[in-house]
Records
---
Amino acid sequence: MSAPIPPVETAPADASLVPLEDLAPAIAAASVSRRAFLGFGLAIGGAALGGGAMATLYPVLAGEEEEIKPIVAQLDHKTQRWTFVVDTARCIGCGLCVAACKEENHVPEKAEYTRTWVERHVVTTDGEVYKDSPDAGINGFPANSTAPGAAGKAVKEAYFMPRLCMQCTNSPCTGVCPVGATYRTGEGIVLVDARRCIGCGYCVVACPYGARYLVPAEERVPNDTPGVADKCTWCYHRITKGLKPACVEVCPVGSRQFGDANDPADVINKVVADTQPQPLWPEFGTQPRVLYSGPSTQEA
C-alpha cells in the first residue's frame, strides 16, 4: 500500500477563537436558534479574506513574488507526546466545547453529526446509570434526565462526561480502512484523508467509542467534502501551530486539558501527576490516549 497522502487543511492561518467573555453571553442568547450563535463564529468568511489570506489557502492564487506559508507547521514528529485529559468532576455541561468545535471545524449543525459531545450520567439509588445528551449537549441540559426510564428515579449522583475521539494507539479504525484514508501521523494523531476516503463507513462501525460519522451533503461540512468519514482531530491544524484545541481553549472551568507531555514545562505534566487520569474502558484493548479523571473513572 502506498504512503498516505497528507491531509488538506482548510482553516485560515490566522483563525482564532472568540474571547470567552464574548462567547458565553452569545450562548445564552442563542437559545432561540443555533444560527444565532453562528454569528459569533470562529471562521472567516470568504468576503473578509484579503488577497494574502486567499493565497495562503489556495497557493495557485499567489503571485510568484509571494512566499507561501504552510498552514500546518513543519514538526519533528519524534518530539511531541500530546496528551488530552478530561476532568469530569469539573465539567458543568455548558456546551461551549461542542459549539466551539462545530465552529472551528465546520461540523454540521445537526446534533447527530459531531466531533465532540457531552453526556450526562445519572446514577440512581438502585445502582442504575442513565445517560442523556440532548442536542449533543451544545445547549446545556434540562434539570431532569431525558434518558428513557430515568423519570421519577431517586438520584444518588450525576456528572457530565465530555466525549471525543480517543486517538487510540491500537486503533480499530486504521485497521479496517480499505484505502488507507484513516491513518496515523508521525506523532500518533489519527486523521482522515478526505481526498482518499470512499465513505464506506467501516471505520464508523469499527470505532467502539462512537466517535465517527459520515459527513452529510450540507452547505457547511468539514473540508468541504460530503460523503466521507469525519471525527475529532484534536484540532490538528491548531496544535501543530502551538495552539490548543478549540474545545480546550473555550472551556470556562478547565475540564479539558491538553499539552505535550515531553515538554517538562508544559502544565499537562502537573495535571497528570495531580489527577492520575485513566483511560475509559481499557478492556476494549485500543489503548486510548484521552485520559479521564473524576467520577467517570468509576465506569472504566
---
Amino acid sequence: MSLDLRTGTDEELAAHWADAGPRDDLADEIFRRYRKRIYVWCYGYCHDVEESVDLTQEIFVKLFAGLENFRGGSRLSTWIYTIARNHCLGKLARQGDQWRKRLQSLDEIEVADLGAARLIRDRERRGELELLLAQARTRMKEEELEAFLLHYRDGLAVREITRILGCNNASGARTLIQNAQRKFRRLIAAKEYPDG
C-alpha cells in the first residue's frame, strides 16, 4: 500500500515507519511538519537561537530513534511534544540560570486588545513569537504558558495537554489554560505589545 506523504496523517506516517522501518522520506516529512513548532518550543526554554537549533536537532534524533515504538495510544503530536518537553526540562535543570538570564525586557511595547489565539498565530507568522513569550513568562508559570501555547497555538485538546504536561486529570490542564488566559488578557490590557 502506497502512502502519500504530503496528505497522510501524522499517525499514518508513524504506522508506516513502524511497519516498513526508518525511511528518509518519512523522516523528512515528519521533520517538515514539526521543525518550526519544536524550534519555537525550544526557544521558549532557552531563549537562544543557536541553542534552540541544537535542541531541535537533539529532539528529532530522539524522536526518530524511538518512532518505531510509537503505538498510537495518543496522537503523534502529543508524543512529539512530550519528548520535546522532557528534553528541554532536562536541559533547563542543568542550565536553568544560564537560560533565565536571556529573557528580554519588553516594558515599552504596546498592543491593542487581541484574542489570544489570533495574537499568537500573528506573532508566529511574523517571527515575533519569542518576544511575546518572553513577556508572557514574566506573568505566567511555565506550565500555564505551556498549556496555553499547546491549546491556542498548536490546537491540542485538553485531554492531550493533560498527557503532555503530566497533569493528574483534565481539570488540572483546564485550570492551567484558564489561569494563563486571565493573565494573558491582563498582559494585553496593559498594552505591552505592538499591534503592528
---
Amino acid sequence: MARFLTPIDALTAAIYSILIVLTFTLTFTVIKRWPGYNQPIPEGFSTELFYAVLGASVAWALIDGLMLALLSLLERSEKHRFLQALQAADSDEDSLAVIADEFDFVLEPIASETKRHQLYADVLEHLRDSQPRPVGFQREDFIEALGTALVAMLAVLPSLLPLWLLRDDPLAALRGANIVSFVMLFILGYRWGVYTGANRWKTGLLLPSFGLALVAIAIPLGG
C-alpha cells in the first residue's frame, strides 16, 4: 500500500481526521460557556458523542479516499489531454508549443530558452508515437483510496479512546480526547518536519496551533 500512498497524503488524511474529532469535542466547550446555559450533562452523553465522532470519522475517511482516487483519475485525464493535443498538432512547431504551454511555468525560472527548447524536442521525440494510458479507474486507485481511508480511521482511534474509557465522566472524557488530539497533531507535525526537512519541533508546535485556529473558525460557522 505504501507504493501508492505518499507520506504527505497519509499525513494529510490523518490531520484532517483529527480536526474532524476536534470540531465535535471542542463544540461542547463553546456551548457550555454560552450565556444562560445551565443544563446538566445528559446521561449517556459520552457514549452518544463517541458514536457520533466515530460515524463522522468513518464518513470522512471514505470521502477522503474517494476524493484521492478521483484526483488520480483527473490527473490521468489531464495527461491524456496533453498527449492528444501534442499528437494532433499540425507540425513539430505546434507540438513544441503545446509542450511549452505545459511546462514553461515550471522550467522558465530555472532554465534558459535554448535548454528548454532542447528538452522539449526530446520530449516530443519520446511522446510522438506514445499510447495514452487508460483514463478509467484502475486497481491502484482503489488501493490508494483504501489506504487513505484506513489511515484516516486509524489516526482518530487514540482520540476516541478517552470518550469510551471515560464515558462515565463526560468532562474528563472530553478533556482527555482534546489532549490526545492535540498530542496527535504535534506528532503528525513533527513527522511532517522529518519528511520535508523543516524544523521538526516548530512544525510539531505549529500544527496544533493551526488546528486550534481552524476549529475556532469552523465551530461558529456550524462546522
---
Amino acid sequence: MQLVKKIFCWIAGLFFVGFVVLMGLAAWLKTKLPTTPKVALIKVEGVINSSDDILKKLKKVEEDKSIKALVLRVNSPGGAVGASQEIYEELLKVKNEYKKPVVVSMGNVAASGGLYISLPANVIFAEGGTITGSIGVIIQKLDIQKLADKIGVKMEVVKTGKFKDILNPFREMTDEERKYLLELEKNVLNQFKEAVVKNRDKKLKVKIDEIADGRIFSGQQALQIGLIDKIGNLEDAINEAAKLAGIKGKPVVVELKKEQPLVKKLLGSDLKGFVPFDTSTTFGLYYLMTY
C-alpha cells in the first residue's frame, strides 16, 4: 500500500513539473513567434468623471507589442478637467513615446472634454452631424437658500478661509467669489486653448479666440474650421489607423473593454443600480457641454 502511494505521489509530481515546464515553454514560444499586427479600439462613452479605466486600457496599448495603432471612439459631452487632461497626456505618450498612431472616431457628441481628449490624434474623424466644439470651462453651484428658509433648514459653517465654502448651496455667492472663480476658469480655459493650438497647429483655419467661447459645431462645420480632419465613420477610422501603422489588408481589431468586477460576474450586474445616485460624480471644474 505504501509503495502504491509513493508511486502515485511520484507520478503526480512529474505531471505537475511537466505542466509547469510546458506552460513556461508556451510563454517563451509566444514571445518568439510572430504575432498578427492589431488595431486597438477603446471607447469613451458618457461623462468623463474618472480616467482610471481609460488609463489602464491605454497602458495595455503601450505594452502590447502586437498592437500597432489605436482608435479612440469618443461619444462624450466632456467631464472633469483633471480626468480629461490625464487621458490627453497618456494619448500623447501612446503617439509620441510608443510611436503608435492614434485615430479618433467621434460619435454623436465629442464636445468640450470629449474634444480635448481627441486632440492628440494623428487624424480625427467625425460624421457630418456630430456635435463637437464647446471649448470652455464651467463650474455649477446649486442655490437652495430660499427653499431652506421656507422649510426651516439652516447650515452653519466653520471655515479657515473666506473662500473655503465658495460653493455652499445655502447662501448666495459674493461678487468677490464670482471674480475669483472666473479667474480660475480663465486659467483652465487657457490650458484648453493651448492644447487646441498645439495639436491642431496649422490645421486650424480660424483664431482660437473666435471659437473658444463655448459654442458647438457640427462635424461639417468643425471640418471647415480645422477642428477635425475628415468626415467618416468608425470603420473609416480603423482603416486609417491600419494605414498609418503600415498594416496590410483588413486589420485585426481588438476592443479593450473594462474588466467586470467579481460581483458583476456572480450576480450578472453590479451594485451601482441599487445606489440612488452616481457616487463617482464629484464637484469641480469641468470641460463639459451642458444642456
